[in-house]
Amino acid sequence: MRFEKKNKFGFTTNREEPLDNVPLTLRLKKGVREALKEIPGWQSDIRELIDEYIKIKKI
Hints:
The chain is an all-alpha fold. The protein has helices spanning 32-37, 42-57. The chain contains two helices and no strands.
């Protein structure tokens, strides 16, 4: 059974801007990935930190 487009139960987002289709990938120290996944909302927190980092480095 296919999920129809414009379905009232479809995915919605509260983001002002859509995310890029191409993900950013990087290698981390062992254990960091698992530790991050245990933190609720870690992805949005990291996105905000990256935005702040870019603003700082553009000076």
